[in-house]
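Project outcomes to date are best conveyed with an example. Our students and postdoctoral researchers have been running inverse folding experiments weekly, and each run begins with a structure described purely in C-alpha cells. The record below, which covers 599 residues, was selected by the lab manager from last quarter's runs and is presented without edits.
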C-alpha cells in the first residue's frame, strides 16, 4: 500500500495534533480525497492502524502517494475549509451534494417604495432576501398572499421625492383596477407604505401572530373612526392570513426558530431532509441525496448540515437531529428529542426523508439495471450523445386553424413508454396557430417546474419539427440556464431529418437506423397522445355549443345538465320531469321541446 511508504509515514509522524484539513494525492498528483480532523495526527494515522476498513477506504489507501495538510484554529473552521476545497476540487472519494440548481428567493428591494418579487438571483445591493425556497409553489403562495393583503407597486420606476413632486409619472392600470395605491402620484406616503413592508417582513419570517395582532388593531381603529369600508378590507385580509396560518402551523407556537435534520441511508446513498421552523410553522423544506464514499454517517450529517444551512441562510441556534454529527458548530445546540413537539418535528422530517428516498430509489432502479439495453447504446452512438439516453422526453403541438391549441409530452424510460409520466398542456400565452411560440411556452413551463420540484432532467429532448421549433425550444432552455446541459434535437416529419442546435444542415440517418426508428416511435406516440387530447377538447366544446345555441339556456344550465347526464344524447332522451329536477320547469320545457322539434 502506498500509504505504508517510508517517506509518507515520516510525514504522518510529523503531523501536528491540531484541527485542520488533510489532502491525499495519487501518483498523477491529483487530489483524490479531502478530510477534516479535530486532531490531524490521530485522524491520518487511523488510516494506517484500522483493521476493519471498508472496501472503498482500502481502495483509497492503495492509491495515496502524497499528503498535504492545512492547520486551522477550530474544528468548525476545518469543516468550512473542507467544504470549500471539496467544491473546488471535487475529489473522487468525497461526498458531493447532487444539487447545483438555483432556488427562488422573495426579495424586498432596497427602494423608497420597495417592490416585493420572486427572483433566482441573489444580488448584494442592500435588498432583503427571504429563502431560498426549494418549493416554487410555496414561494408563489406566499407572494400571492402578500399581494392580496397589500397593494404594492410592481412597476420599475425610480420613485423618490423629486420624481413624485414633478408629477412626471402617472398612475398605471394597476392603480385603476385596485392592485396598487399609486405611490408614483403621492397617493400613499412613504411611512404608510413602510408599514406594509414591516408586516410583509414578519410574514416572511413566519411571525404571523404579530401581523394578525397589528391588523386586528388597525381594523378596530377604522371601525372606531366609522371608516367601515377600510375596516371591511382589513377584515378580508385578516381572513386570508388566518386561513394561511391554519394551513401552515403544525406545532405549538412555543417552538421558535429551529432547524430539523433527519437521516436515512442505504448501502450506497444517504438521504437527508431539512425543515426550518419559525413560530410553530414549517416555512422551508429541503431534501438531498448524497452518494456515500468512505465517510461515517456522523461526518455525512455534519457535511449536510453545514451545506444546507449555508444554502438556506439559516442562523438557528438550535438543531434537532437523530444523532450527534461529528462536528459541533459554535453557538449552536444539538437536540435529540424523545418526546413532545420536537420529537413530532423529527418524525415529520423522517417521513419526508422516507418519501424522498423511495422516489430516488425508483429512479436508481431505472438507471442501474444489470444489462443496459443495447438500444440505448446504439442511440447514443448514432446520435453522438454525451451519455446513455435513459430518459427521453418528446414534445408535439396540436391545433386546427389555431383553435384549442394544446401540446403533449411523452416520456420514455430505458426505451419503453412511461405513460404515467406523460403530460398534457393547455397553451396559455399564445393566440392562434403559432407553433414556434407554443413550443417556447411549453418547454419553459415543463422544465421550470422540473427544476422547482428538484426532479431529474431528461437525457435527451426530442422536438417534433424542424429548425424553427428547435430554435424556440432553445430559447426557453436558455432562459432556464439549461442550454448545453441537456441534449436536444428536432425531428422534421416530412423527410425524417434530424436537426441539432447550431447546425445549418440536417443530420440524416439511414432508413434502417435503430436510432431513427426509435425517435420516430417516440414522436408518433407524442403525436397520438396530443391528438387524442385535442380531439377531446373539441368534442367537449362542440357538446357545449349545442346546448348554448338553444335560446334561453345559459352556461349554468349547460354545466348542470352535463354534470348530471354526461352527454347531449342522454339529455335529449330525458323526460320533462327529469330535466325539471335539475334546471327547473321553465328551462326544462325549452330543452324538452327543442329536442322533440329537432327529432
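After processing, the design step wrote out the following sequence:
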Amino acid at each position: 500500500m502506498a500509504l505504508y511508504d517510508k517517506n509518507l509515514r515520516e510525514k504522518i509522524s510529523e503531523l501536528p495534533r491540531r484541527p485542520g484539513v488533510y489532502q491525499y494525492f495519487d501518483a498523477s498528483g491529483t487530489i483524490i480525497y479531502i478530510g477534516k480532523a479535530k486532531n490531524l495526527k490521530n485522524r491520518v494515522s487511523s488510516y494506517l492502524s484500522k483493521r476493519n476498513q471498508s472496501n472503498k477506504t482500502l481502495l483509497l489507501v492503495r492509491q495515496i502517494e502524497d499528503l498535504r495538510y492545512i492547520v486551522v484554529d477550530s474544528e468548525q473552521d476545518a469543516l468550512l475549509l473542507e467544504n470549500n476545497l471539496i467544491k473546488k476540487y471535487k475529489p473522487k472519494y468525497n461526498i458531493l451534494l447532487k444539487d447545483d440548481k438555483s432556488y427562488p428567493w422573495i426579495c424586498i428591494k432596497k427602494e423608497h417604495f420597495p417592490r416585493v418579487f420572486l427572483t433566482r438571483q441573489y444580488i448584494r445591493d442592500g435588498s432583503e432576501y427571504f429563502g431560498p425556497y426549494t418549493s416554487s409553489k410555496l414561494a408563489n403562495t406566499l407572494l400571492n398572499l402578500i399581494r392580496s393583503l397589500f397593494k404594492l407597486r410592481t412597476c420599475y420606476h425610480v420613485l423618490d421625492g423629486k420624481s413624485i413632486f414633478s408629477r412626471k409619472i402617472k398612475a398605471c392600470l394597476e392603480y385603476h383596477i385596485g392592485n396598487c395605491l399609486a405611490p408614483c402620484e403621492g397617493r400613499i406616503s412613504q411611512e404608510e407604505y413602510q408599514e406594509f413592508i414591516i408586516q410583509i417582513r414578519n410574514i416572511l419570517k413566519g411571525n404571523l401572530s404579530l401581523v394578525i395582532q397589528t391588523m386586528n388593531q388597525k381594523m378596530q381603529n377604522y371601525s372606531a373612526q366609522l371608516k367601515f369600508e377600510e375596516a371591511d378590507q382589513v377584515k378580508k385580509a385578516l381572513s386570508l392570513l388566518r386561513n394561511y396560518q391554519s394551513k401552515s402551523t403544525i406545532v405549538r407556537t412555543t417552538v421558535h426558530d429551529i432547524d430539523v435534520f433527519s437521516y436515512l441511508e442505504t448501502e450506497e446513498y444517504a438521504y437527508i431532509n431539512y425543515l426550518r421552523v419559525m413560530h410553530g410553522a414549517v416555512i422551508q423544506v429541503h431534501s438531498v441525496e448524497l452518494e456515500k464514499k468512505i465517510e461515517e454517517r456522523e461526518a455525512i450529517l455534519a457535511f449536510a448540515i453545514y451545506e444546507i444551512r449555508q444554502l438556506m441562510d439559516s442562523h438557528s441556534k438550535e438543531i434537532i437531529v437523530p444523532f450527534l454529527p461529528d462536528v459541533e458548530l459554535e453557538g449552536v445546540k444539538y437536540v435529540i428529542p424523545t418526546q413532545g413537539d420536537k420529537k413530532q418535528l423529527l418524525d415529520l422530517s423522517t417521513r419526508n426523508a422516507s418519501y424522498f428516498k423511495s422516489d430516488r430509489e425508483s429512479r436508481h432502479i431505472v438507471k442501474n439495471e444489470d444489462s443496459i439495453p443495447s438500444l440505448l447504446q446504439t442511440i447514443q452512438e448514432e446520435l453522438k450523445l454525451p451519455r446513455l439516453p435513459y430518459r427521453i422526453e418528446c414534445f408535439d403541438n396540436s391545433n386546427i386553424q389555431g383553435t384549442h391549441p394544446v401540446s403533449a409530452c411523452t416520456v420514455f424510460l430505458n426505451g419503453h413508454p412511461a405513460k404515467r409520466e406523460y403530460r398534457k398542456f393547455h397553451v396559455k400565452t399564445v393566440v392562434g396557430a403559432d407553433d414556434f411560440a407554443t413550443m417556447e411556452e411549453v418547454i419553459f413551463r415543463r422544465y421550470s417546474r422540473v427544476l422547482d420540484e428538484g426532479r431529474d432532467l431528461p437525457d435527451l429532448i426530442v422536438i417534433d419539427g424542424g429548425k424553427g421549433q428547435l430554435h424556440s425550444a432553445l430559447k426557453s432552455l436558455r432562459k432556464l440556464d439549461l442550454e448545453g446541459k441537456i441534449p436536444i434535437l428536432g425531428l422534421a416529419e416530412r423527410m425524417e431529418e434530424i436537426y441539432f442546435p447550431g447546425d445549418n444542415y440536417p443530420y440524416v440517418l439511414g432508413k434502417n437506423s435503430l436510432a431513427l426508428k426509435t425517435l420516430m416511435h417516440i414522436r408518433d406516440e407524442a403525436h397520438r397522445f396530443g391528438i387524442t387530447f385535442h380531439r377531446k377538447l373539441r368534442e367537449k366544446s362542440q357538446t357545449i355549443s349545442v346546448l348554448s345555441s338553444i335560446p334561453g339556456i345559459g352556461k349554468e344550465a349547460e354545466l348542470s345538465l352535463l354534470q348530471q347526464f354526461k352527454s347531449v344524447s342522454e339529455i335529449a332522451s330525458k323526460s320533462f320531469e327529469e330535466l325539471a329536477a335539475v334546471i327547473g320547469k321553465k328551462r326544462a320545457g325549452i330543452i324538452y321541446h327543442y329536442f322533440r322539434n329537432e327529432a
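The CA atoms of residues 362 and 368 lie 10 Å apart. Confidence is low (pLDDT under 50) at residues 249-253. The training component of this project remains on track.
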